[in-house]
Amino acid sequence: KNAKLWIVVLKNDMADKVLLPKFKMYLGPSGGGSRWEYNDNKKTIYIKRGPHNWSQIEIKSQEAGRGSFEGATVHRLSFDEQPFEEIFDSALVRVIDTRAQVLMAATMWEQGISWVYDRFIKPTMDGAVKNVEFITGKMDSNLILDKERIDEFYRQLCLKNPEEAQVRVMGAMISLSGKCPFNIMALSRMKDIADALPVERCELMYGV
């Protein structure tokens, strides 16, 4: 059936600079009888699902404020990066009646992760929340990024801060209060090994 999806980004210009080129890469040219079209004024991608059926992917920006998240029913909600909590709450209202899947990408090294930790990470660890799933990924899982540039970025970041390199590039979780916030033994073990190594050996540990 037709569906409305929201992708929430941090800044207004990310629709044209980041997301639209990715859609073009995977879907081919838009318009002219193709299976998708883009309305720049509405920042909306229309994808054809049949002769008269179109689904919508609306690109929302938290820079536009809470007012832009009003008055719609959404079938899937996605955040490109961790938003402000008030933006998250405004968007979350739109999926209550559809019981939609909500996705959030977050680099757990960034400042201001406390509300995500308080609302999702800790309650899930404590068993109070059952419908939240955490997925980690390495930077090179993004096939659009150049592997050689990733390797060089990782090498330089290791020299500055090995733990930040693990989080940003290797998909590890940041340590909070001396503990890995997720109960994954492999990640805890990886951090123990990295902490015991000299900084210059961080890149060798992962074969970069």
Overview of the molecule:
By secondary structure, the chain is an alpha/beta fold. The chain has helices spanning 14-27, 85-92, 114-125, 147-160, 162-168, 185-196, 202-205, and strands spanning 4-9, 36-39, 44-50, 53-61, 76-79, 101-104. It has a six-stranded mixed beta sheet, with helices on one face. Helix 4 runs antiparallel to helix 5 (162-168). The relative contact order is 0.10. Residues 177-208 have low confidence and may be disordered.
At a glance:
The protein is α/β, with parallel strands linked by helices and 208 residues long. The chain has helices at residues 14-27, 85-92, 114-125, 147-160, 162-168, 185-196, 202-205; strands spanning 4-9, 36-39, 44-50, 53-61, 76-79, 101-104.
Distance between the termini: 46 Å
Biggest beta-sheet profile: 6 strands, mixed
Rg (CA only) = 20 Å
Q: What is the overall silhouette?
A: globular
**Number of separate strands:** 6
- Tally of individual helices: 7
Question: Percent of residues in helical segments?
Answer: 25-40%
Order of helices and strands: EHEEEEHEHHHHH
* Widest beta sheet: strand line-up: 2-3-4-1-5-6
Features:
208 residues; alpha/beta; six-stranded mixed sheet; 7 helices; 34% helix; 16% strand; globular; disordered C terminus
Architecture blueprint of SSEs:
Blueprint: E1 4-9, H1 14-27, E2 36-39, E3 44-50, E4 53-61, E5 76-79, H2 85-92, E6 101-104, H3 114-125, H4 147-160, H5 162-168, H6 185-196, H7 202-205
Parallel strand pairs: 1-4, 1-5, 5-6
Antiparallel strand pairs: 2-3, 3-4
Helix pairs in contact: 4-5
